[in-house]
Amino acid sequence: MGQEPGTGFDDFVRGRAGALLRSAYLLTGDRHAAEDLLQDALERVYRRWSRIATSPEAYARRALVNGATNRWRLRRRRPEAPLIDAHDPADPDHAGRVALRAVVENALRELPARQRATVVLRYFDDLSEAEVASLLNCSVGTVKTHASRGLARLRTALGPTFDAPVSPSGRNS
Amino acid sequence: MNSADERDIRNVMSEVTRDLEPSPVLMELVRRKVRRRNRQHGLLAAAAAVVLLVAVGGVLALRPWHADNRYDAPLAPIPGFDQPTRGDLAGDNRYADDVTTAWGAWARQWQVAKGNSYRVTELGATNLTWALNTPAGRVAVIEQELTVSEDHVDHPGVAIGYLTDIVGRPHVVDALWEPLDQPLEQLPFPGGTGGMLAGADRSVLVVFDPGGPVGYSVKRTYHPDGQITRDDWKPLHFTGGVAVVRVPPRADQGAIAVAPRPYGQSQPLWLVNTADNAGIYQVGTVPSRDQNRPDGRLNWDTYHLNGPNPGTNECLRLPSPVSYPTRSPFTDPLGASEISEGPFTACGTTPDGSGVTIGDAVLPGDPAFLWYALRSPAGTIRYGYVGPFDASAPLPVKVTLPSGQGYVVARKGAVLSYRINNGPWQGARENAALVPAEATAVQVATNGSSTVVPLG
């Protein structure tokens, strides 16, 4: 390992860890796996900081995507577990969000990994098709295909969710 | 597909991630990972051919490592794949057939599983690496060649299955597969399985000889200041390449650690079959911890001890075992060290102006315990390990704070009041309360009945 990253890395983590965690969650469909994935990605960022300090986010996103799609280990299916959130127990939106989350998790899991990554990068992280192509090391045409098919599959899987309000906030109603 | 769909997908993804926040000690966790990786480099550089591959028949340890943790060698056959079975059951053809059958049924799941990032397209020859008797029944390690496809590109690999007897039959209790043409940096535990627990009750520890001195520990020692040590190390003695020792039978053996000697100088060995997963492993898409297993934590909420409820935000500003900014206490240095905090937290201010937080937490394999943290007005943080609790007691949480700062008492749904000697009941508060050091008893009132619990 080279020079210690110093405060630049700390600032990067403080500023971007939340967004990266949310992406990681959508990439894995699991809160704990997302935290592990984020830690792994940030560890790589940390070790390479001297080389990537000018664009750490791109490197971190690449590490997230690679980590999410290159999981060589046997995946162990455990009983579905509720997420443990730091939520306000009195939050009336919480139950609706938990239910919606379960639906979205299942829908995302049904997508092939690269399709899922494309949907997350394109529609959650708002990256351009060219940026997604660069991250996934594929052509823009492939990104378009993945995005189109992924959206269609999600649209089908989430159809009832789109058709009914999911929270008192009125979103999707 | 139209923009409305895209907008809907955006909205849904934003909605379900809205309240996800990273751990307050993410930075420390990352740095710990870096330190661990650095230590691992040192270990691998010093003993690359030693550590792990004895456990799996020498699959990966013979591969060259670079200083930056890259594996960069041409694809090679699986080393040792054609070696004869080791262990005292090596000549037992019936057992070998049973293991192969059990493993085969398991491994074929890889070919039909939906939703995986990778698809196993071909399963090849198997090799029974280990077959031995233990006091808790037979155990076996089996390897199998396989081919995995990603985006129509095939990757050669090796699968490794771990089996132990459950109800007299070999049963797969863990399995993994490793690519033979990918950087090992991708792996969370590169080839790192050093042993397993045998039997349905996990009462026997089986460790495969890593080629150097190794010992084991079966319990953590919790110190009053929150530090955790392991003081019961015993050396392992290998015979025929394996060490077999009895360990206390428990449903969850997460407290067991196996590490090279001298202890603390290098990473512990990875063990399999340490939790109650046998029989529920399937090929799926959710790599996660065993989140649903009850671990004794209190399913309570966040309370303020002497301010308005809920005190969530205020509590989050106070220290906890996982929010300590520099070095976390309650960390098992050589075992499964991931602490899980309960949802129960209570916080407030003590008579000398210190911030106090208490809560419960658990480490794998041990009972849940209560902890507290005090932050003095000068900013000094002091932790305390209180110990296990009885969730069914009238007053499950009764913590004596140091330096005469009183007691923290809590029970979800109860109204708590205290008295001094034979004085009147006072300070009634719901769920959790900070009571003065002079208090001699607490009254716990729930649903029309009450119980008096003495203090001191």
TrEMBL record, chain A:
<dbReference type="GO" id="GO:0003677">
    <property type="term" value="F:DNA binding"/>
</dbReference>
<dbReference type="Pfam" id="PF08281">
    <property type="entry name" value="Sigma70_r4_2"/>
</dbReference>
<feature type="domain" description="RNA polymerase sigma factor 70 region 4 type 2">
    <location>
        <begin position="104"/>
        <end position="154"/>
    </location>
</feature>
<keyword id="KW-0238">DNA-binding</keyword>
<dbReference type="GO" id="GO:0006352">
    <property type="term" value="P:DNA-templated transcription initiation"/>
</dbReference>
<dbReference type="InterPro" id="IPR013324">
    <property type="entry name" value="RNA_pol_sigma_r3/r4-like"/>
</dbReference>
<feature type="domain" description="RNA polymerase sigma-70 region 2">
    <location>
        <begin position="18"/>
        <end position="78"/>
    </location>
</feature>
<protein>
    <submittedName>
        <fullName>DNA-directed RNA polymerase sigma-70 factor</fullName>
    </submittedName>
</protein>
<dbReference type="InterPro" id="IPR013325">
    <property type="entry name" value="RNA_pol_sigma_r2"/>
</dbReference>
<keyword id="KW-0731">Sigma factor</keyword>
<dbReference type="InterPro" id="IPR007627">
    <property type="entry name" value="RNA_pol_sigma70_r2"/>
</dbReference>
<keyword id="KW-0240">DNA-directed RNA polymerase</keyword>
<dbReference type="Pfam" id="PF04542">
    <property type="entry name" value="Sigma70_r2"/>
</dbReference>
<dbReference type="GO" id="GO:0000428">
    <property type="term" value="C:DNA-directed RNA polymerase complex"/>
</dbReference>
<dbReference type="InterPro" id="IPR013249">
    <property type="entry name" value="RNA_pol_sigma70_r4_t2"/>
</dbReference>
<dbReference type="GO" id="GO:0016987">
    <property type="term" value="F:sigma factor activity"/>
</dbReference>
<dbReference type="InterPro" id="IPR039425">
    <property type="entry name" value="RNA_pol_sigma-70-like"/>
</dbReference>
<keyword id="KW-0804">Transcription</keyword>
<keyword id="KW-0805">Transcription regulation</keyword>
<dbReference type="InterPro" id="IPR036388">
    <property type="entry name" value="WH-like_DNA-bd_sf"/>
</dbReference>
<comment type="similarity">
    <text>Belongs to the sigma-70 factor family. ECF subfamily.</text>
</comment>
<dbReference type="InterPro" id="IPR014284">
    <property type="entry name" value="RNA_pol_sigma-70_dom"/>
</dbReference>
From TrEMBL, chain B:
<keyword id="KW-1133">Transmembrane helix</keyword>
<feature type="transmembrane region" description="Helical">
    <location>
        <begin position="41"/>
        <end position="62"/>
    </location>
</feature>
<keyword id="KW-0812">Transmembrane</keyword>
<protein>
    <submittedName>
        <fullName>Uncharacterized protein</fullName>
    </submittedName>
</protein>
<keyword id="KW-0472">Membrane</keyword>
